[in-house]
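User: Is it possible to get a 3D structure for a protein together with its bound compound? The compound here is NAP. I've pasted both below.
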Amino acid sequence: MTSESSKLAFNDGWQYSPAPESTDHIVIDEQYGLFIDNEFVEPAEGQYFDTINPATEEFLASVALATDADVSRAVKAARKAKNGAWSKMKPADRGKYIYRIARILQERAREFSVIESLDGGKPIRESRDIDIPLSAAHFFYYAGWADKLDYAFPGRTSKPLGVVGQVIPWNFPLLMAAWKIAPALACGNTVVLKPAETTPLTAMKLAEVIRDAELPPGVVNFVTGAGDTGASIVNHPDVDKIAFTGSTEVGRIIQQSIAGTGKRYTLELGGKAANIIFADAAIDQAVEGIVNGIFFNQGHVCCAGSRLLVQESVADEVVSKLKDRMETLIVGDPLDKNTDIGAINSASQLQTIQSYLKIGEEEGAEMHQSSCVLPERGYWCRPTIFTGVSQSNRVVQEEIFGPVLAIQTFRTPEEGLEKANNTPYGLSGGVWTDKGSKIFQITKKVRAGVIWANTFNKFDPTSPFGGYKESGIGSEGGLHGLNAYVELVK
Ligand code: NAP
Ligand code: MG
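Assistant: Yes, that's possible. Here is the predicted structure of the complex:
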């Protein structure tokens, strides 16, 4: 189908009937306190902030703003639990609590999916099929390790690090919490976690799950707030380890502020992944993979395939097919099961993306956007591709974190590799080819923590995830993810 014919199909008014997921079954309180010692408590200074639905700009709930005093209270609770009930418990029993969390999450999956989409703007199809099941899978997976740490570290004895401070971003709110909390608990640590300011609600729901699973008070605590609350956790003297996922900019600040303190840290930061399509690839499959890798979830993915390197002889075909496919993507109500691209997470993220669209044009790139009609309220961005970009362009080098794809071409595999590796990041990448030998040759030379071949953005709790260069330090997931939460004593 050509761009013209696909446009016609839509302009003729041929559309899917709406298939909205119901919100009748969910409960969101008007106000949430801080979750400390298994109870929701008032913040010391009595301040709250609002979280909204980015698709409608409507109020969802108000959430406590934690200050230094609140963070200290949470750390104190975590320390008490670490020295008390949680340490004295048999590892197999620790595992049972983590299994319980996993099972309750599964039971409440529908409710969690809807709340994740309401609070963050992501399509229900993604929260329902990816975020929530993968979060439960992480708890199941790490529950199994709790009493088998001797097998994880043969010949060594592992000890928990103590109280762990965790700070997470808004793009996968529950999943990032699961990535962080599950291995920390399995290894015997206790936790103080701060969700992102714009997406605190599934953390509040997870707090209910922790309470219902009857974990000993203080084992998991949630403090909500903005960057200052995160900084307060990072700088708290009684926190033994910081686990951070977010931007490279904030990662750098964290690294500087804990230098010399003896605190451990892992940093999962930004990315600018390239998908490399060779002429021998299954082109339709590759185009679908590219679309999935950058446009679904609005490009709000650290490992999004935000760059495309396509071999010159198939470049015209790939770009034309991408434009056609882009035209058919459905942008709109995150709760509609047909939606491919939901709302941008916040007004400020939309502003950032829009500033990059301007930069791309000013740098001389050719911008092509889908012609879809955007809803009047809320924060939206059309799927966008840039062609005619050069390696030094900012839209090629910098993380945009939106549905924006920069396309370059290459002639030889060496040139493709050279371009793929030429960014400050090294989180993920993709290779599309019909030749198994080429997959092995190329993937060995792409300097990225995770590389997919003939697929993209596939996750599993058993598989480690982490990056090189400015994409961070340390890995999460799998056996590697346990390393980040233990001290090996002999
Ligand atoms: P961000 O601005 O760095 O924020 C991340 C978290 O840090 C938020 O909870 C934020 O609070 C908090 N924070 C802000 N300033 C802080 C400070 N000075 N000290 C301590 N904490 C602070 O990142 P974001 O915009 O939320 O998320 C997008 C970024 O995350 C992208 O760069 C993406 O690539 C990266 N990411 C990486 C991975 C990975 O696994 N490598 C996974 C997902 C996302 P507020 O919410 O209040 O700002
Ligand atoms: Mg929100």
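The chain has a mean pLDDT of 96. Residues 31-269+471-489 form a domain with the Aldehyde Dehydrogenase; Chain A, domain 1 fold (CATH 3.40.605.10).
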